[in-house]
Amino acid sequence: MAASVAFSPACRRLPCNPLSASTGALSLVRLAGCSRRLRRACATAEPSDVLPGSGAGELDGLVPAGLLEELPEGLAFQGAPDGSGGHPMLDRGINAAIVLGAITFALTKLLTVDHDYWHGWTILEILRYMPQHNWSAYEEALKANPVLVKMMISGIVYSLGDWIAQCYEGKPIFEFDRARMFRSGLIGFALQGSLSHYYYNFCESVFPCKDWWAVPVKAAFDQTAWSGLWNTIYFVALGFLRWESPSTIFSELKSTFFPMLTAGWKLWPFAHLITYGVVPVEHRLLWVDCVEIIWVTILSTYSNEKSEARILDDSSTTDTRDNSR
């Protein structure tokens, strides 16, 4: 059933509001829950359970009467096929195919690394040599195409990190935003992998000393100059991929730059004691990407929370102006 909801002033007394007037923060879990309940109820509602409506500020279409009290102020829901929530079953099916296909492909590549030599091997022998030979295959690929391999690893990590962020925000495991996950993965592939490859080589050339004191110096340089530069690149690139204006991107970057920089100080200094003290330079990005699954989850949540809060705020402001005319 196609439905669109515009909210009247009467609905503003209701509690499910994702924008807090005191903090301005977005509660994505409550917002997602309200939207999902509306879609399910619209799909199963009987004719006697819905209210007709028309005109600006009223119901345009048919909406279950009991759901108005659960919807946040300023939320515009589109259930039509051309809206983002028009075919939830199809979206879930596509998302499930993407996730299961990626997992199947990864497991197949890992488990069959020795398939040319399996003749006479037992299952235990296959499992015994699988980790060692997968690492050998990774090192050979790294020597042949170091930048491309690191770009692919970073693309996977940034896609996975954004998926985890969406699940953390309250979305079901197969109801993630594919466009958002693609944007994050594209940034990881096109920018993070290649830039980090050159950065770690540059860092070694600037601080070639192998003494113990060089490790905290490199970590400090990483968490000031490089971290600030990369966070800026990430936010700007993500903003352009979302077709946001330069002024909007700059405003969001200015409000999140120092919170993101200081948030990184709670995680990365400890990780970089291993990065610069133990891990060889050619494998540093692999180690950093393993830790970065956590960091990308934080980074993606910060960026998209700001963007979605701004979109909802703009929508609420527009509705208020229309109702006042």
From TrEMBL:
GO terms for cellular component: cytoplasm; membrane. The keyword Transcription does not apply. It is found in: Membrane. The keyword Membrane applies. Its main location: membrane. Keywords: Membrane, Transmembrane, Transmembrane helix. It is a multi-pass membrane protein. Belongs to the peroxisomal membrane protein PXMP2/4 family. This is Peroxisomal membrane protein. It comes from Triticum aestivum.
